[in-house]
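Model it.
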Amino acid sequence: MKKAGIVATVALFMTGGWTLGGEAASSMKIGVMDTQRVMENSKAGKAALDEVRTYSMTRQKIIDDDERELRDLQQILEDPNSKLSESAKQEKQELFQTKLAAYERRVQDFNREIQEKQRSMVEEYGKKIAEAAKAVAQKEGYTAILDKGNEAIFRIVLYHKPTLDVTDLVIKEFDRQNATAK
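Modeled.
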């Protein structure tokens, strides 16, 4: 469904132009939450984000080491006072090209690995956050809890009263449900 269609459907739903199971929209209890804030402020979410960050940093250290090695080789090749023979210089040039190609492949592989790890984490924790939101809705009598979204991805809720925000309740429930998480 296109963004305009989703916004129109939510607006119709929230203004009472659409009913849910015979219940008038005006008597429904609706909440909103910030999924990103749940992820960043919950214990399990912080642990997952830290794990991805650590994974990324270890990969970056390897890339940094490769870059240093390439710079050192390049300096040797460009040194006007170098006493390398032509054959030694040719060997260093070939070594540089081989290491450069390996470096470029490694950067691509690491980027792919990190993106996959992030995608997997978002998918896994998105489901867990939805479970926590559902539990809050059931406990607190909400008919619906909408994700506020954010500017970078997709924003469904354009405005809401601050009293409708149930993010803190969802964080508490998410932490309770995932107490054994890293």
